[in-house]
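Internal tracking record. Fields below are filled automatically when a chain is submitted to the structure queue. Please do not edit lines marked as system-generated. If the sequence contains nonstandard residues, flag them in the REMARKS field before resubmitting.
Queue: standard
Priority: normal
Entity type: single polypeptide chain
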Amino acid sequence: MDNIFVKYLSKKAKKEEAKVFSPGPIITISRQFGCFGTDTAKKLAEKMSQKSTNAWDYITKEILKESAKKMDVSVHEIAHIFGANEKSFLSDIMVSFMTKAYKSDSMIKRTIYSVVRTYAEQGNCIIVGRAGCIVAKDIKKALHVRIVAPFEYRKEIIKLRFNLSDKKAHKMVVETDKKRDLFMKFFKGDIPDEEVFDVVLSRKKIDDSVIVETIEKLAESCGLV
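SYSTEM-GENERATED OUTPUT FOLLOWS
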């Protein structure tokens, strides 16, 4: 009888815990190449931490490292997925016969989704890229931001930052834009941007400090702090 009562209390406690748990708060930053969202996220995390009882952190490369760790492979073996160079079905079969440690692209994507989702549910973090806006789209305590800028503006930024010729900078922006678009399509499909992002900010028109301040104020108005 005692055991039955203990089990009943345990089940009740779990149900109550499930009701109390609310994922987030979370901010996701999607950015075009050359808009450098990580710099923005770092400054924003510091601002958010000052206004919250819990410290905020920004997450980007950690997702790749954590995904590789979960699959027991090197970061190099799964990095191609972020470049959207998805292997063909035939390639999948051929390579799987060559190595026992081989991980299919579908498995990599599922793992990335799982890792991003874990960070999103834990909350108090800013996820940069990695399809965070899609993975966390159902979380109520969330703000999804997109940072953009005209092609020529971004090309000049990349040209200066990496000391490239005009031609090489142009090529890098074109190729990286394409890879990022394809990666997002893995998770986003044909969902229009207006259904994904809460706000779109122009890096050309708005200084980084103003972008940080704007996101911070939006986060406050959404009840994230």
